[in-house]
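A sample copied in:

***
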Amino acid sequence: MLLKRKRIEKGQARMSPLRFDPQGRTGGFLLTGEMTFRTSAPAIREAASIIDAAYTPLQFDLSGVSRADSAGVGLLIEWQRLAARARCELRYTNMPKSLESIMRVTGVLGMLPAD
C-alpha cells in the first residue's frame, strides 16, 4: 500500500506549538516553540491556566522561542492583562531579538516587564 505524503508548500513550515515547561518550583517556565498567529489561541489558554493557578510571581523564559511574529507580541500583552486581572506578577526573560524588534517598531518595547 502506497501512502502519499502531504506536501508542504514552499514558505510553509510545520508549526511548532508553544510549550510551557516548568523550571523547578520557583514560578519559572521555559517557553519553547513558536509565538505566532497559528499558535496563539492554545498559548493563551495554557498561560491563563498557569497564571490562574500561580501562588508565586511568574517568570516566562523566552530563550526557547524558535519563531515569533506580531501575534507573539500580542501574546505578551495578553498574558500581562491576564496576570494583572489575577493579581499575579509576571516577568519575561531572554527576549528573542525578533520579538524585541517588533516591539520596538510597534512602540511597546518599554511597556512590558522584561529583563
Remarks:
- The chain has one domain: 19-111.
